[in-house]
């Protein structure tokens, strides 16, 4: 087991990297057993990525590097140069001229179909996020692969993508939590700059700070709840909701509260919200391990 694959998820604010054994005997079905290590850094913190790769090369040969990115072309080039700086050509599988194989959204991956009108227009992070959520649905929860599923990512932008019958049927994009806070500060004369926190979420805010916190969090949770309802109306199934992204801790309690009240009032099964840390990397690893 000396062949190592590195995965890169390059977002608008942060970069996540994971190393795993490419030919681990259980890599196709159980991602965790094949993982060597992973790291999350902010954009431009390339020295930390260099240190990560240096440590990984002590364990074996890096055969391939796969990545997805929604960041700028400059960041993409910087990441490629990180891997060009290493002497990785001793692995016959590694291509120094194309150090990172950048993947894109597709019409189909395994049994999952992408119904986006323009396949390539779907953010590649959203595509591999839904693949990762589907992996957790079928391999960890052991649930029928055709049930209703939603993947929510709370990052720089918030995305809410819906799946049914193993088809990505569409999704929504809205400004992320911090972007909403910042827009209120920049676009008004007297509203204060507010940092992300769940401590001031109250039913009836009596301070401006709490009013902004509560309003923005409720807007985010409401956008998710709308898609939960719409998917239920379409399928008559209470969807499984997978939640990821750096801002999720601030919002997930509000989502759970809204869903609990709705399920109880409507006499439905409770909405199951599952928090995930690295859904895109999970989707990437499953894809790379199984694409043959």
Number of spatially distinct domains: 2
Helix content: 25-40%
CATH top level assignment of the largest domain: Alpha Beta
The count of β-strands is: 12
Helix segment tally: 8
Instruction: Please name the CATH architecture of the largest domain.
Output: 2-Layer Sandwich
Largest sheet: 7 strands, mixed
GO molecular function: ATP binding; pantothenate kinase activity
Main location: cytoplasm
Pfam families: Pan_kinase
Binding site for ATP: 9-16, 156
Helix and strand topology:
Blueprint: E1 3-10, E2 14-21, H1 31-34, E3 35-42, H2 46-57, E4 61-69, H3 73-84, E5 101-102, E6 108-109, E7 112-114, H4 124-140, E8 149-154, E9 157-164, E10 167-175, H5 177-187, H6 208-235, E11 240-244, H7 248-266, E12 272-275, H8 279-290
Parallel strand pairs: 1-4, 4-5, 7-10, 8-11, 11-12
Antiparallel strand pairs: 1-2, 2-3, 6-7, 8-9, 9-10
Helix pairs in contact: 2-3, 4-8, 5-6, 6-7
Structure in words:
It is built from eight helices and twelve strands. The protein has 292 residues and is α/β, with parallel strands linked by helices. The chain is globular. The chain starts with a strand and ends with a helix.
